[in-house]
Every structure is written in structure tokens, then in C-alpha cells.
Automatic annotation (TrEMBL):
Signal peptide: 1-21
Domain of life: Eukaryota
InterPro entries cross-referenced by the UniProt entry: VOMI (IPR005515), VOMI_sf (IPR036706)
Keywords: Signal
Gene: Vmo1_0
Gene Ontology CC entries for this record: extracellular space
Protein name: VMO1 protein
Species name: Nyctibius bracteatus (Rufous potoo)
Coiled coil: none
Length: 203
């Protein structure tokens, strides 16, 4: 896993398009993207493809895919996906989304919007640390918070397991894309952890 040291900010010069999962292409051609991240994400999985808001738009709302607690003998995955809702200054109601990869469990929440035409600028992640115990149910990311440009905080409907980490750095202007560190579905004989970590693109 390629970690980002220090303040968890990285300038990516996106001069070329890269191949991404499921036959998609990264919509990053000709765009310089500042990446913000947190340091407490889970360890399992791989980076999926990035997904970006249309050029000239930004993320002003977010929704969460969450699986509720499954009980003592079942496999929990908690936070499975994060979807950004993109808006343009001429169309603040949105209509476009950016999602990257999400796991199959759970349901999507209603969109949580920044008030007063604000936009997303940073996030924090709630994570259950690896248990490393026999027969333990590993979960990793359980909830997320996003901070808006006007200081309003949006919190997802995830579980209360784990601990909140620190806030990411804030985008100078606005969030415009997302990429997820996703653990694939392993099936009945393996412990699934779904979403382990996201990172966001600033434009």
C-alpha cells in the first residue's frame, strides 16, 4: 500500500489518463488534483479506480452505504461505500455523482447536503482497529464525517464501533472526486471488511 506521509496531502499531476477497474477510464486528463487523506484507514484491500465530478463542478453533498449490525454469528462490514453528489454554481441541486468502488452489502442513505450552497472540503473516518484474534470479526471503517466550506459537519449513519481519527487537511477550494481502498468480497469462508479507507481529490 502506498502511504502518504506527514500531513497526508499529495499533489498529483494528472497529465495522462490511466486504466481503471471494470473497463472505466480515469476522468483526470489535464487536471491537477490535490489529494487529501487520513492516517487511520484499515489495512486490507487495494485502491479502486478514482471517480471525479464533471469538470467545473464540486461535491456539495454525500451519502453512505452502510450495513447494519448482523449479530453475533454473522459477518459485519459496516461502511461499504461513499458517494459524492456534485453540483455546479449554475445548478446547486446536483444531478451528478462520484463514487469509486463500493461493496455490495448495506443500503444507501439519503444525501446529506452542505447548507447555504456550501461544498465539501475535508473528512474524518471512524475505524475499528484490526483485532488480530482467532475468530474475531474484522470490520475496519464504520462511519465517516465530512466538513463543509461553511464549517457545517455532515456525519454518516454508520455504526458506533471503533474510534474517530483526526480530520484530513482541507481542500483549498472544494472536493471534486474520490478513490476508495476496498477489500473484495471473499465469500462464506473469509472475513469481509468492505471499505477500508477513502481519499479525496481537491480541484
Amino acid at each position: 500500500r502506498a502511504a502518504m506521509p506527514g500531513g497526508q496531502v499529495l499533489l498529483l499531476l494528472m497529465g495522462l489518463a490511466g486504466a481503471a477497474g471494470q473497463g472505466q477510464e480515469w476522468d483526470l486528463v489535464g487536471r491537477d488534483a490535490l489529494v487529501i487523506a487520513v492516517s487511520n484507514g484499515g489495512p486490507w484491500g487495494d485502491w479502486a479506480w478514482p471517480d471525479m465530478c464533471p469538470k467545473g463542478s464540486y461535491a456539495s453533498s454525500v451519502s453512505f452505504k452502510v450495513e447494519p449490525p448482523q449479530g453475533m454469528m454473522e459477518d459485519d462490514t459496516a461502511l461499504n461505500g461513499i458517494r459524492l453528489h456534485c453540483s455546479h454554481s449554475r445548478d446547486p441541486s446536483g444531478g451528478y455523482t462520484a463514487e469509486s468502488q463500493s461493496s455490495r452489502w448495506g443500503r444507501w442513505s439519503e444525501a446529506c447536503w452542505c447548507p447555504h450552497r456550501g461544498h465539501l472540503v475535508g473528512f474524518a473516518l471512524r475505524v475499528q482497529a484490526p483485532q488480530h484474534r482467532l475468530l474475531s470479526d474484522e470490520v475496519t471503517a464504520t462511519s465517516a464525517r465530512f466538513i463543509c466550506s461553511n464549517g457545517h459537519v455532515l456525519e454518516g449513519p454508520g455504526s458506533t464501533w471503533g474510534q474517530w481519527g483526526g480530520w484530513s487537511p482541507q481542500c483549498p477550494r472544494a472536493v471534486c472526486g474520490i478513490q476508495t481502498w476496498q477489500d473484495p468480497a471473499w465469500g462464506l469462508k473469509r472475513d469481509d471488511t468492505a471499505l477500508n479507507d477513502p481519499r479525496l481529490f481537491c480541484c
